[in-house]
Amino acid sequence: MARVIEFDFGTPASKAEAQVTLTIDGQTVRVAAGTSVMRAAQERGVTIPKLCATDSMEAFGSCRLCLVEIEGRNGTPASCTTPVAEGMVVRTQTPRLKTLRKGVMELYISDHPLDCLTCAANGDCELQDTAGAVGLREVRFGYEGDNHLVATKDESNPYFTYDASKCIVCSRCVRACEEVQGTFALTITGRGFKSRVAAGQSEPFMTSECVSCGACVQACPTATLTEKSVIEIGTPEHSVVTTCAYCGVGCAFKAEMRGDELVRMVPWKDGKANRGHSCIKGRFAYGYASHRERILKPMIRERISDPWREVSWDEAIGHAASELKRVQAQHGRDSIGGITSSRCTNEETFLVQKLVRAGFGNNNVDTCARVCHSPTGYGLKTAFGTSAGTQDFDSVEHADVALIIGANPTDGHPVFASRLKKRLRQGARLIVVDPRRIDMVRTPHVTADHHLALKPGTNVAVLTAMAHVIVTEGLVDEAFVRERCELDAFQDWAEFVAEPARSPEATEAATLVPALALREAARLYATGGAAAIYYGLGVTEHSQGSTTVMAMANLAMATGNIGKLGAGVNPLRGQNNVQGACDMGSFPHELTGYRHVSDDATRAQFETAWDVHIDNEPGLRINNMLDAAVEGTFKALYIQGEDILQSDPNTTHVSAGLAAMECVIVQDLFLNETANYAHVFLPGSTFLEKDGTFTNAERRIQPVRKVMAPKNGYGDWEITQLLSNALGYPMTYGHPSEIMDEIARLTPTFAGVSFAKLDELGSVQWPCNDAAPEGTPMMHVDGFVRGRGNFVITEYVPTDEKTGPRFPLLLTTGRILSQYNVGAQTRRTDNVIWHEEDRLEIHPHDAEQRGVRDGDYVQLQSRTGAISLRAKVTDRVAPGVVYTTFHHPDTQANVVTTEYTDWATDCPEYKVTAVQVTPSNGPTLWQEQYDDLSRKSRRIAPNRPTVEAAE
Amino acid sequence: MTVRVFVPSDSAAVAVGADGVVDALLQEAERLGQSIQIVRNGSRGAFDLEPLLEVETEEGRIAYGPIDPSEVAGLVAAGLFRGGDHPKRLGKPEDLPFFIRQTRLTFARSGITDPQDLDDYRAHGGGEGLAKARAMGPAGVIDAITKSGLRGRGGAGFPTGIKWKTVADTPAARKYIVCNADEGDSGTFADRMIMEGDPFALIEGMTIAALAVGASKGFVYIRSEYPLAVAAMRAAVETAGGERLLGPKSDPLFDIEVRVGAGAYVCGEETSLLDSLEGKRGQVRAKPPLPAHKGLFGQPTVINNVLSFAAVPHILADGAELYAGLGHGRSRGTMPVQLAGDIKHGGLVEVPFGITLGELVDEIGGGTLSGRPVRAVQVGGPLGAYFPRRLFDTPFDYEAFAARDGLIGHGGVVVFSDGVDMAAQARFAMEFCAIESCGKCTPCRIGSVRGVEVIDKIRAGQARAENLAVLTDLCETMKYGSLCALGGFTPYPVMSAVTHFPEDFGVIERAPQPAGQEV
């Protein structure tokens, strides 16, 4: 294996269609108009020395090494900033150019430390390479002149250092922060020789606005900005392209290795979801894989009050299998079930549901999408015929209007947010529908045209009012509706939304959105060009989550914003493989590819392939399993990679359900909160330790590649296979590719997918089959999957969760950039420095009324439960609304969330809880008791022979 | 009867006591019960005569100068208000030798009118250019400017008509007119004199440009060191707005905003000026794209110097042919030259191109003020070359100066007499570049610092020959490698000092002198 070295063409590719022919060093070159001379030369294999140019950003023209001579033009223009022209004759290497380049390099090196041998970038330094390339042999100025060699290092960021003494002021970091990331945290201070890179107002990186995305580090051509891991370990010697295991954006990374040690994760330029960009989590937060709390040996215990006992894999698997068999023998076939993981690979998820259906013999399988995007699947399938987003992320580059609803992309989907912000800086317009003033409302050089700060729980009323405006003001794309949609359904829907009761004016009192602002936003969405909807859990995690999804689909169809570039309805999916987990038949009612278990033909296909009988009735959903456990009919659960205790609503009910079971098998990296109630713990493997695939929010199936042996001994798919074999249902896969082959055989939308194809193409978007051998970037282009688009009437039904005198505030929840979901991984990295605890955001008005100051402990009480956490007084939330994150188990935010769920899919209503906030001294009784239980249940018995007490 | 007395409000006059002269005049008039009206005109540009006091008489305006406030009582006693005789009486100003060889087109009104009086402006031909422009239409205007041969007076000498046509031909919803009034060159003051002495001319010129290219918004970017010019321009813009010459009801629809720089020389470079106007750090942009295609806020932008815009009203009012008929070679029309340094008659000299450097310095300027022989003349600001007396036959013309490794720049001429240390001047050029570099490109950012250090070594006698070779190579790197003229032109003063004055660098054997040639 070798390092994956990406070619740097110096400037971005031109998207022009016209071609230009020119001559470079006597060779004829034909390139797209608008291409730089530098790139044209590089495409022909001629490398022009450069330092400030890199193809991820616009040409800058500052280093002056890439000068060339062009016939008929004066002087020596920079090849990076000079576009090609028809008939141009370029020379890249002449005596004059050689002298000039040497002269420039001599200046650089006259202010650069000569410590190459001990430098972290030794062998991986563009300055070093370029000095060699231009033939610099001496620095005649000497080294006694003015210099920056004694500049101090900024080591404040836990992941990288800024060593100003090595800075050549090429501004690549500054430009990366602006053009690629869009944070504008970096600048150049001072001028002339005193020009220096500075973070924020010349402060340490850590206290500046820097979001630690790593774009600057990646852009730096020297050791000025360097990963601390490279400083510590050395330069990598080989790399493997793989897919990030955090959010649903699905960034492609190069895992850069030295032996089996991971040196760094560097975003891969050819990654089609991220296009070479990354965020703090994927780029830096991989240290959990070797965290001391990671469990590497299987463990079992009789009772959950016992300490854990480390055992061999054989014993653990044997014990788990015998327990499952015992429970089934005792309580019936349907008394056990499994939960697949949205964090694991498609192949692993497929195996778990296969284990349940074929090994357990029931349909009691569910997945965490139940609590996040199940309404997306239901709503989009009802409207369009496919349970997935309609576009690829590249489509955002063509959007004229973006409507973000119930999503916080800069925190939850940062790399997509950067791509969206770039488009917005180019002039696209933005509508934000969110109770909270998320960063997208106002971020450097981006201001939302409209921020509709609705009352939590009124999404349907707001979107239907937008539809009212579109229909009553004649903004419907009638041609699209006539050609593409079901006309009767449209007519019914149009009549419904046109009723005065749906107007913005009529619904203003309920939604708190000013009618005029809503009207303007609706007009902009309908008439502003290609309009794309991006949404998240703020849409789905409501009692009307599925209705909201359909309301968005209605808007998109009514305005013709489906099936074209820059438009669509796009869920921003939370987990790396939540799309894949849904695709893989993780739901109790569906086999792979969203085919219902009641469909005889589908079932027959699986029954033949698996040689088992499959129930034609759906099995239990997670919440049904827990209810049944409390009732005493559900007794054993196999959970792969999900922490339902922390992530599911109404924690006390979840804990009661788990506590009532006789055998809980948890397969995870850490003793998570659910493991407090487990009897068998099977140590899981990280995404670095196995092969497989993840499917991101744009239906893109991407390879996950094993870069090191599993520290725990097995990949997760192997563990499931061991369990299945122990249960008596044989599985004999030698490699995950064989599992994918089986998925492809059994799933029409995956028929063309194979590891070989993924190796060849990098990734494919399903459907991938004979009709679309290279996948499908955009859905519903010429027709909807279901035939004609379906308009569904979206009556606004307020949630039963209501504020009142006792619970006057509405709590909504979300996440923050540095932490991921329940934090199992990110809390075990230095990311905790950014977010060491969950805080309750409360408006100054509400805080004042309650005598709450910033940083005070407050009790957050709902009808369900109470927790304590510290307050953050901010006007990001509107009066009457409070907000918190749920990354830390000691906060237990889900103790307060209710059991109300989406009417169609049971997705919990996390986003609306009526609460009261009162000053408090510290943790609630529940938190204290739970903390105690949690400490006790994590005890592991000393694994050594008992020594007789010596006399 | 009320007597009109003129005392310039120009910074150059105020700096030498013009305001005190006004106070003294008012005092004396009140004491005598004489009704007077004091007009704060602009300066005529004969700075050795400032404060130049003029009184309106039946035979015309009679000048006295230079006047110290303490002399006012005596002047009044001698019959100042009737144009009475006095040792400081200069007669009619237009007959002074300093003005006789000048051709005042751009500066036709400066020093004559009340700069803030729009009626006065109109009475002296103001507004005729715009009226003609309206009649000619955009294409006609651009054609006239092209035919006049007007070239950018900021220093680059780019044909103004071509620039305007480029902007006119670039489709965009919004276009801008930007006036570069960041006059930072040492020994220059012509922009300031226009803004303080005839601001409506600049407004008219910019308005004509707006009409020609279809721009709706203009900016005047003035250096912060010009507080009086800023105030004068702001007042004039307000007056013009009140008269519907600017603002929402103007024709063409055009408005001007006055912005003040923050003290960076490099912001006189057009692209860093645009960045500064956008609220960014004043840093040079790479070209292309040209500002004419993607300028201010990414929109097509005409960016011209004050003198370029101020030349426009005359060209349109009196015809492009008249303007083009003046000049020399490819340098047409007149150039407002600014004489400074060790010179007897310093100030503003507007002459047709073609006059020689010697005529400017020796004849109009009257030689050095100190009376010592001229040793070197730096033409074109701090980045201009030093010319020895041997090259005094060089005609003032863009190409002629370029042919002798020099430049006319913004028309600044600074005279040094024989006490000057040219190695120190070369060092100063590098130091100036080091202080004023924006820091973007390597040759300028690091090269200027190394340049100072190498010259220091040469002056200290360390390995002179080797270090002179290093300096020469460095100057080549800066000249051809720099992103903008700051780093690119710094080698001019340095290498001209080395070439023409090698003895100051410790080179005993004089290098063979390039012969002064006819151009």
In short:
The complex is a heterodimer of chains A (951) and B (519). Chain A has 951 residues and is an alpha/beta fold. Chain A has 29 helices and 37 strands.
What labels describe this entry?
heterodimer, A: about 950 residues, alpha/beta, seven-stranded mixed sheet, six-stranded mixed β-barrel, 29 helices, globular, B: about 525 residues, five-stranded mixed sheet, disordered C terminus
Widest sheet: strand ordering of chain B: 2-1-3-4-5
What is the gyration radius of chain B calculated from CA atoms?
24 Å
Helix content of chain B: 40-55%
Shape of chain B: globular
Query: Low-confidence runs of chain B (pLDDT<50, min 5 residues)?
Result: 515-519
Total strands of chain A: the figure is 37
- The separation of the N and C termini of chain B measures 57 Å
Please estimate the helix content of chain A.
25-40%
Radius of gyration of chain A: 29 Å
Strand order of the largest sheet of chain A: 14-13-28-27-26-15-16
Give start-end ranges of low-pLDDT stretches of chain A: none
**What is the strand tally of chain B?**
16
Strand percentage of chain A lies at 15-25%
Give the overall form of chain A.
globular
Q: What is the mean predicted local confidence, pLDDT of chain A?
A: 94
> Biggest sheet of chain A, open or closed, and with what strands and sense?
7 strands, mixed
Which two protein chains have the largest interface (Cβ within 8 Å of the partner's Cβ), and how many residues from each?
A: A-B, 39 and 36 residues
Distance between the termini of chain A: 59 Å
Average pLDDT across residues of chain B? 95
The biggest sheet of chain B amounts to: 5 strands, mixed
Structural class of chain B: alpha/beta
